[in-house]
């Protein structure tokens, strides 16, 4: 592929696709020495979600880029404090609202000050907070150290998932205000501590004004996307369009046009400096992967319509509960809706564009199976049905 002009003002659709893949860590050799924390810093945000099929989404994100890295290694990379054995714990990451509920590099703590200030000024919340409970939670954390909501007095009033106790409302509000942080996960429960103890002193105080915060997040979004429209950049950390407009000229991103996009775009100048080349990753993608966060962008770049159907009534699902797009050769070539039954990875439904995708899908299934310690793969439904037996044969051939 020929070198891009410097600075590039016009990109072909193929150049933009390859720039996006490299920016997201799917094109070229991954930085294995930096590991999971390197992936987090590179992406700027890793989405959290409660759904666990093959694994939870925050595990699937580094797996998709690095391969079969140990799942315990993933959790330790996010939540094990550094340096080891010191008091107080200093996390490598913090959990906060970004694109959604996300894990974020701890060094970005100052740049979410604008959002913490916005939460503090909100006139109402969805959950009521009984008088005195907030102060009691802060007092208990200060006296006893890191605690879960259960340790603080209980997370729920009833068995309903949404029916939070006053204690849970208080500690989650304190997290959004920036008074507490999640320093670990224990059985998927957040372990909270005071930010003044857990966040390094040099990062703790909200000294940056809104414009400085937004400028940084817009630049980070552009770097993580490689190239994107205003809507793409705003969506990455869920900013408002007018917030992007106010700072993008000073963000360090450069304006470009992309063939077929029909809208102005901006690119990371570093991404334009060298042509994107190298080995393509073949893998299953979490529906919450930042490569495919924004549906319009996914359709624009890959010609691929993606929708999570976990919250769609079962009779109306087209591709399955947790259909995972298959990335191969820099393209999205199909979907797999997986499940696990003992040591078997079950492909409940596989949907492919055509027979050329069979070897890539077989490779992705077998690697995923090995990662979650499954010893075989079973294919149930296939669309088109005629490809089911060829996929089974391809899986068997790959195992030989």
Would you spell out the secondary-structure blueprint of this structure?
Layout: E1 10-11, H1 13-23, H2 35-43, E2 46-47, H3 57-66, H4 71-79, E3 93-97, E4 101-105, H5 113-120, H6 133-144, H7 149-152, H8 166-177, E5 180-186, E6 189-194, H9 195-198, H10 201-204, H11 210-225, E7 227-229, H12 230-236, H13 241-247, E8 254-258, E9 265-267, H14 269-273, E10 283-284, H15 295-302, E11 324-328, E12 331-341, E13 344-352, H16 358-371, E14 376-383, H17 388-399
Helix pairs in contact: 2-3, 6-8, 11-12, 11-13, 12-13, 16-17
Describe the structure.
It is a single chain. By secondary structure, the protein is an alpha+beta fold. Helices cover 38% and strands 18% of the residues. A hairpin with a 6-residue loop joins strand 8 (254-258) and strand 9. It is globular and about 65 Å long.
Count of discrete alpha- or pi-helical segments spanning 4 or more residues: 17
**Percent helix range:** 25-40%
Rg, Cα atoms, Å: 22 Å
Helix/strand structural class: alpha+beta
Described by strand count, sense and barrel closure, the largest sheet is: 5 strands, mixed
Number of strands: 14
Indicate the overall shape: globular
What's the quaternary structure here?
single chain
- Kindly report the average pLDDT value: 91
User: What share of the residues does DSSP label as strand, in percent?
Assistant: 15-25%
The main sheet orders its strands as 10-11-12-13-14
What is the first-to-last residue Cα distance? Answer: 36 Å
